[in-house]
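Hi R.,

Here's the chain you asked about this morning:
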Amino acid sequence: MRNRMSQFTTQLGVALGAVALLSAQAVLAADGGGAPVGKITERVVPARGGAPAATAPAGSGGAAAPVRTPDTSASADRGLSVTSGATLNSQLVKVRTSGGTGTLTFRLLDPTGKPAELPPGLIFGSDGSLSGEAPAVSSPKTITYLIQVQDSGGGKASRTVRLTINPPLTVQGGAIQATAGGKIKSPAKFLNIAGGTGKYTVSYSNAQGGSMRMPSGLVLDGAGNVSGAVPASTDKLAGLTATITDEGGARVSLPVEFNLAPALEISTNPVELTAGATIPSPIPVVTSSGGSGAVRYALLDKDGTTPARLPDGLRFDSTAGALTGLVPSTPQEGRYVVIAQDAGGGEANAKFEWKVNPQLQISFE
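And here is the predicted structure, written out as tokens:
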């Protein structure tokens, strides 16, 4: 017997699963002999614990042994998934064969062994390739097929494969609101991605289509998040494009725009209060300008690192940057630092002083 291995490979956009090696065998006897002439083994990614297909025994006395149709229920966890609208550029199915004679020809059959029809737009070639464009679906659609290979010496083998077409990959977003010169400390998602197949990756390119070199400290990751140092201008970000690719061959590209607000700035107002008084309405102690999004404030001790401890009854509103509550009953004064942070990564600080004067008294002369 002469052994041979043929491999047919595809790429779906940037990345896609493929069919690899699993143990299973279906054989026919060669003309004039009773020995097996070939087998086909394959796996469709993802494969998680599926049982192998049954093995058909070779015939004797020159008679061909019948090929047993693989049990589709045993292969229910094997599948090849593509995304609606994805263009399959080349060969999709990676099939490994051994044994056999001469030229190999592949056919796509339905579970009963009859010639199968693919959904509109898809083409299965005699070389084992799947090409064309996956049709549009609103919900996942799964179809079971048999891939059959036949050699020029009369040998045949087949395996079950499950094709799933998933809804289109949709992407929204692309605009990043940030403060010039700020720092986004926690990754913030700027792309909303839905549909498609499996996991997705995000890559970035410049106006010429080459790899984008980000300004120092700025991070745009493969999940569509932004973090790190915000540049002072968008000069080095012109033409920035995000390309989202899923495991089903879909690719979506859209421009990424940085909407930079002026740097965040704050100023404080010294406050003098009367001992024992009740503050009738919040007293603003800080005002801000520039920045992007909501601004929150924190009151720190004069060292600028330790959270401030105000006298009992007196409170600092971190949203409004104001004092509320009851004024201490004894005269005192304090020096603090106000830290302001906005939603776009902007940050600013300023010193703040307050003083409690003696209680107001009245007497007759």
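One quick note: The longest strand covers residues 141-151.

Cheers,
M.
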